[in-house]
User: Which sequence fits this backbone?
């Protein structure tokens, strides 16, 4: 039986199955990226599901009643491997390590790299008469085109630079801000004809600024838009926790900023840390369902990592399922880490402990990381970006455990040369 455009009905069904299998593989893969974005390896179960779907896609395309087509096999595997490597680059680049030029190149062009796979897809689709392969290529090309178009042309508000931010920018740029912006493709930097420098800020509808790259690799300060959104995110989550009566406090770099910057953010802050105590009143399930419900209602993306006992809440709006996971392709993100603690005993002493390591927090008998209860409870309050917010009972003692001598300006994760360039400014700022 002949179907439309010269394909038989069975060929059309084969194309449709290939398209569906590719779509499922793609969705499973972009969901997997959430782990890399949070500096963790993907779980075994989610890796196996993605690998199984990819295998089913390739097997469906290369196997037929005539046997195996090695050409279709090689083309399908090669295409998926190349495209998925590009898609994964921004998530892999989230963790600051030694420079990885290839990963960083693809991360830098995350909105457009998928498009460069369209010409080879058209060429292969035209040259190789395999309807199932064609079904996969057309689906992949359509997804990449939609991803590109969706991220185009969102209006942005212009922000002026604060004195210290501008000083750091000019120092890292060695005085040539225009050249620096061009060299590193910093599209947010705008220089007027009279030399005024401003920043085209991110917002709920645009892609977030690539904070990790600007802060850790280039050694810049947190852009003004992101600082505003970080504060907004902190207020949103603290408000949710207060509403459900959860015991919570600011943690890590956020507490460090509140103590050392008199209620402000660290100049190079890339996220916000809040911790919450799980007990009989605030269970993990209650916490997750409350935050997910409020996030969906108020426009914040909530992602739950049960295996690590933490939740990330991001400033970007959650999109409709199943495409909500496509956000993991974004190069930037403004997010809050909400880490859970529990009551425990260590060598007979009451402690509060968490699964994830923070700073130099000691290892407990359980293998988790913890501090004596009285360092944190009962919580106190501290000025943080205006209003008071809960903090550990002994904030200085807590910071001492995490960071040792926390009074000195130490840039964590920032590229060695970029950190050296700005060292004098930071020394002057802190002292
Ligand atoms: Zn921003």
Assistant:
């Amino acid at each position: 039986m002949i179907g439309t455009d010269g394909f038989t009905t069975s060929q059309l069904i084969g194309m449709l199955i290939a398209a569906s299998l590719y779509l499922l593989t793609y969705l499973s893969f972009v969901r997997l990226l959430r782990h890399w974005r949070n500096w963790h390896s993907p779980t075994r179960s989610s890796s196996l599901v993605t690998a199984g779907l990819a295998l089913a896609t390739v097997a469906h395309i290369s196997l037929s009643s005539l046997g195996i087509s090695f050409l279709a096999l090689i083309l399908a595997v090669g295409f998926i491997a190349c495209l998925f490597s590009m898609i994964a680059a921004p998530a892999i680049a989230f963790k600051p390590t030694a420079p990885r030029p290839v990963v960083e190149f693809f991360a830098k062009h995350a909105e457009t790299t998928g498009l460069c796979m369209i010409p080879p897809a058209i060429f292969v689709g035209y040259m190789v008469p395999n309807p199932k392969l064609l079904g996969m290529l057309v689906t992949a090309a359509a997804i990449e085109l939609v991803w590109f178009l969706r991220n185009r042309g969102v209006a942005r508000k212009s922000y002026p630079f604060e004195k210290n931010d501008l000083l750091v920018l000019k120092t890292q740029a060695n005085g040539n801000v225009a050249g620096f912006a061009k060299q590193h493709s910093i599209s947010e930097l705008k220089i007027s004809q009279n030399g005024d420098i401003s920043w085209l800020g991110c917002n709920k509808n645009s892609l977030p600024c690539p904070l990790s790259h600007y802060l850790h690799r280039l050694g810049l300060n947190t852009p003004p838009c992101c600082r505003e959104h970080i504060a907004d995110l902190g207020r949103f989550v603290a408000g949710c926790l207060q509403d459900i009566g959860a015991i919570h406090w600011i943690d890590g770099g956020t507490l460090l900023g509140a103590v050392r910057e008199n209620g402000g953010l660290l100049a190079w802050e890339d996220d916000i840390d809040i911790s919450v105590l799980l007990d009989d009143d605030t269970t993990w399930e209650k916490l997750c369902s409350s935050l997910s419900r409020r996030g969906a209602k108020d426009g914040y993306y909530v992602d739950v990592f049960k295996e690590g006992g933490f939740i990330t809440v991001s400033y970007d709006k959650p999109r409709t399922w199943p495409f909500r996971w496509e956000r993991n392709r974004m190069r930037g993100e403004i997010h809050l880490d909400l880490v859970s603690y529990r009551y425990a005993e260590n060598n007979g002493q009451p402690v509060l402990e968490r699964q994830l390591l923070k700073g130099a927090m000691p290892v407990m008998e359980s293998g988790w990381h913890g501090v004596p209860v009285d360092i944190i409870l009962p919580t106190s309050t501290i000025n943080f970006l205006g209003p008071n917010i809960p903090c550990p009972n002994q904030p200085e003692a807590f910071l001492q455990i995490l960071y040792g001598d926390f009074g000195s300006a130490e840039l964590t994760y920032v590229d060695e040369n970029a950190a050296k360039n700005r060292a004098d400014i930071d020394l002057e700022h802190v002292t």
